Amino acid sequence: MYVAEKRGQATIARWTPNEVTVQVSHARPGDHLILNQNWDPGWSANGRRTQDWADLPAAVLSAESETVVFRYVPSTLWPGLGIFATAVAGMGWLALETRRVRKLTRGRGQEAKDARSKPDRASGAAQ
Fold first, then answer.
1. Where exactly are the structural domains of the chain?
2. What is the side-by-side order of every strand in the sheet holding 66-72?
């Protein structure tokens, strides 16, 4: 990462795959801090969308010295989580429904077995 206007110094204070914290000093307000990552609409800097600076995320600096936190949240995250939650709920419902149906069929099977194992009163009386 660097300040595009070649004024000031930028150092990484913290780095994770989805968040980069950068300390900037000796820059001018209005300068652009460029992060050396592929630009995507999911990038933000201090809560605001980043600019596309030659396919790199850029943030406009507001002070001579500041901390800029770049965050990446893919645009497909929330729809993907919604699909995942729906799928999990559907599988849970299916498991409960299967269990309920099996219980019902087991009960019917037991009743049939009981009926077959009991002597028939009509045939028993005739003998």
1. 2-72, 77-118
2. 9-16, 19-25, 66-72, 43-45, 48-49
Higher pLDDT, 116 or 25: 25
Neighbouring C-beta atoms of residue 111, cutoff 10 Å: 10
**CB-based contacts of 10: which residues, under 8 Å, 6+ apart?**
1, 2, 3, 22, 23, 24, 27, 33
Is-contact 52 60, C-beta < 8 A?
no
Nearest to 52 by CA among 65, 43, 61, 62: 43
Inter-residue contact 38 to 74 (CB < 8 Å): no
**pLDDT tens sequence across 50-100:** 999 999 999 999 999 999 999 999 888 888 899 999 999 999 999 999 988
Residue 9, beta-bridge partner list: 25
C-alpha 32/C-alpha 28 separation (Å) is: 9
Query: What is the percent of the chain where pLDDT is above 70?
Result: 83
Stretch 42-54: mean pLDDT: 96
